[in-house]
Design brief:
Two copies of one chain form a homodimer. By secondary structure, the first copy, chain A, is an alpha+beta fold. Chain A is built from seven helices and twelve strands. Chain B binds a DNA duplex through helix 6.
Chain lengths: ~250, ~250
DNA sequence: CGAGCGTTTGAAATCGGTCAACAGCAGTGG
DNA sequence: CCACTGCTGTTGACCGATTTCAAACGCTCG
């Protein structure tokens, strides 16, 4: 792990291309400049290095600048589960804010770099800038929502649906960042995918083979090429919660 | 649904017995008084009534005052999943703050009453009161954490473990509110439990029977009496994430 | 008292897990 | 450059947990 003082870090939040995924979203230029004052440093991680561990005291949250990280929880009995994969612009560590301790281990899947956001300074600044306060709440809420979708997948989808969903989700996140939606490299192993999706590594492998046989995609080790996006979406099934038609007058809030 | 203006509502946050689970936690008496000014009204719900629906615009979040509610998500294809059961003192609606729309339907499992917390006023007040800002973040973080635990259960536990966990979780929440940890009435049906835990209603029923045969508990319809808390905990298995021993010097945050 | 719902129980089918063997690629060192 | 080794991923056979289908039971409420 390699700490870089902010002074030596040439890139600022106010000009960062990831702004639209990250903390500065929706802030005016002046407000975004203020954020630069609280990003005290950045951290470089080599593949496999750990950013924080569960139960570590939490003084900061982290914005992914470069690379990919996974978060995973280790249980008393040694079992572990991957709880998320984090791409550039996404913020790590929010789940532990309440208890001032991290709830998961964060580990780099490839050489990565994260911005350190000191929490106390963020909270101070959020009191000055309603737009930042709002964005901070938005990001926490987004985190809740992401867990919620993952939870829905684990609770109500079959393995095949979960995996199709996972691939589509990755695809759209890459696309949002300007990469190809149809071809990308997985940064994680089959084991990590399986852990994340609540299935065994063999099941992941078998399903990927089945998708390939069905002409939905081509996969060679970690290189994925999606051939039939619609077909995959059809398998993914009930991806999104329904847009409910509102029975008039039946609800007030 | 029955709205009650604050003027007619005798109970205040500052004196509410649920304060230690709810918004006022950790606030000084003066700060808690301030909260009273933003709780504009309360809402009474009859069993089965809906407080809000997914996609409803979100202007307020809700503290459960009396009763129990469930939140559930309906998918495009009609399938639905229960995402949470909410006891007095718990706050509903946080997941939707970011998008200003509710992500789930909230529905009363029994006659209930909730406090309406106007979001814009809460955010204004949070800028004035650091302790409230902090508590608000704590509550959102707690929500993240709750989803996280549920997610871990769905992703890495067998049906038996999930159900044992669920019962223990309910038990401790009742106990925290001053009710018996060993005997309580479920407010939800087998169907709702199954949906929440990602299993079929028949599986719930069979497992409950198995627990009864094993001398772990007695259950008659919705009345549960836990006989062997330790035995149940043993089945629940890896309930909690491990308290990781920290290898010295290997992490900075 | 009967209807209807929620719950329990049984039997058969299926999905996914477990165990085991093997293939393929990567890195190491001779 | 090529064996050797180890790790990751694939595939097959079998097993078990959970689902599915079906039927019966027993509250609760009109």
């Amino acid at each position: 792990m390699n700490r870089i003082p902010a002074a030596e870090a040439p890139n600022k939040c106010s000009t960062c291309v990831l702004g639209k995924f990250c903390l500065p979203l929706g802030l005016s230029a002046e407000d975004a400049d203020q954020i630069d004052t609280i990003i005290t440093e950045r951290v470089r991680l080599k593949k496999g290095e750990t950013l924080y561990r569960q139960n570590d005291p939490l003084n900061a949250v982290f914005g992914v600048r470069v690379g990919t990280l996974k978060t995973l929880v280790v249980f008393q009995d040694g079992r572990e589960q991957v709880t998320g994969f984090h791409l550039p612009g996404e913020i790590l560590g929010l789940g532990g804010i309440g208890e001032h301790h991290h709830h998961a281990n964060a580990c780099a899947l490839e050489d990565s770099e994260v911005c350190v956001i000191q929490l106390s300074q963020l909270e101070d600044l959020a009191r000055q800038l309603p737009s930042l306060q709002h964005q901070f709440h938005r990001i926490m809420s987004q985190e809740i929502n992401q867990y919620r979708l993952h939870l829905l997948a684990l609770g109500s989808m079959r393995a095949e649906e979960r995996l199709a969903n996972f691939l589509l989700n990755l695809s759209s996140r890459f696309a949002a960042r300007g990469y190809s939606a149809n071809e990308f490299n997985l940064r994680m192993s089959r084991e990590e995918i399986g852990s994340y999706l609540g299935m065994q590594i063999e099941t992941v492998s078998r399903l990927l083979s089945r998708f390939t046989e069905g002409g939905l995609l081509q996969i060679k080790l970690r290189n994925v090429r999606i051939i039939d996006m619609d077909g995959l979406a059809r398998i993914a099934g009930h991806t999104a919660p329904a847009e409910v038609m509102q029975p008039a007058g039946s609800h007030l809030y």
